[in-house]
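Per-record layout

source: Ammoniphilus resinae
name: Site-specific recombinase XerD
length: 336
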Amino acid sequence: MRSKEISYYVTSFFTQYLNNEAGLSINTIKSYRDAFILFYKYLEESGICKISKLKMDTLNIDNVTGFLDWLEQVRDCSISSRNQRLAALKAFCVYVIRKNPEESALCQGILKIRIKKAPQKSVEYLTVNAIEYLHKMPDKHSMQGIRELAMIALMYESGCRVQELIYLRVGDIAFSSPNTLTLTGKGNKARVIPISSNAADIIKAYLNSNGICDMAHPVFVNRYDKPLSRSGVSYVLNKYGQLARKARPDLFPTKLHPHILRHSKAMHLLENGVNLIYIRDFLGHSSVTTTEIYARCNPELKRKYIEQAGSLITETVEEYSEGEKEALIDWLRKNI
């Protein structure tokens, strides 16, 4: 087994393990693939070795560390992207160890590389007034306008990810009381999301005006009747974001990204007192800790929760000492 070269392991990793055993989503597999493409590119550009001469020991701690620094410094990738590429290489190393324990020493070096901590960014979101204004931008009397209004309305109402929007089929929408969408998220996990009758009417008007009735047909397509791409969704949203910003620069950032509608929906739910547990399920997060970022980024909400917590401690937990109360409130201040 020691004679096996890295190409053997990479081939079986992608063609057998990821597809059949691991059961990863197509998007995750594509992300892993991109990590290897970039790693090979780094090796060649840095003069370490040609792709045709790759050996298993090329995957060593020095080369991987150099690759991660190259991603940040040369390609200007974010820390998050750097960590994603490292995760792909680590997953590969775990697979190689399973296939051939003799490679353990080499792979353990990679597995010991720590992820890089990124400074926590504040969540960018639009106010309710901005969302209402954005909905007025498309011309709902034209076929293109009603299509793009439906896209914006659906993204905000459901808080869906871009990929979930792209994969959405006509049959995933239930026009009944209540109106719902079935979204398929990360890990092929499905969730049912309620939408307002107003949003449902906009989507229905779009489907009817474009003659889309096949249950298996994508809800949103391009001019060639193909599913939209991520860049296509970004283009539509940013187009109307620019129009809206010209009229109301106080309400809109310089550029709108699709995720901003998802962030906005989460923040508006939170501002209306919806429990983080329900917001977690609504957004399709695997853990409420992912959702907590919305509570942390809003100072007013943070202040309200801390005050409520202090009041609750005073009123219902009288056996706590003043020191214990302060310690608990301090913990909430740091973690909410």
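summary: The first strand starts at residue 173 and ends at 174. The chain is about 60% helix and 5% strand.
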